[in-house]
Amino acid sequence: MEQILQFGPDHSLVGVLTSPVDVKKHAHPAVAYILFNSGVISRVGPHRNNVRLARAMAESGEWVLRFDLSGHGDSRPAAGNLNLREQAVADLKSAM
């Protein structure tokens, strides 16, 4: 199952939560995985590898959030004045 999410302080980050089909069996995961875009490539990853990885992991009962960092893909640019590294850390904290 996949669900589109908007999150972050101003809901500017966009991601896709991929969950196991049997959510009742895997309702409270001990671990969730986060995949984010690298460079200019969106959350789908190069050759859609992140999509395939997230779906395969969900078939094994894992929860996966793949999302675009601020200013990339479908996520809007950040409103603050953080440098690229600081903003990426802030975005990852929001995802967590």
Descriptive terms for the model:
alpha+beta, 96 residues, 4-stranded mixed beta sheet, 24% helix
Q: State the secondary-structure class.
A: alpha+beta
Strand order of the largest sheet: 1-2-4-3
Termini separation comes to: 20 Å
Uncertain residue ranges? none
Topology as H/E string? EEEHEH
Coarse morphology: globular
Please work out how many helical segments DSSP would assign. Answer: 2
Mean pLDDT: 90
Helix content class: 10-25%
Rounded Rg: 13 Å
Q: How can the largest sheet be summarized?
A: 4 strands, mixed
* Residue share in β-strands: 15-25%
The number of distinct β-strands equals: 4
Quick synopsis:
By secondary structure, the chain is of the alpha+beta class. The chain contains 2 helices and 4 strands, in the order βββαβα. β1 and β2 form a beta hairpin.
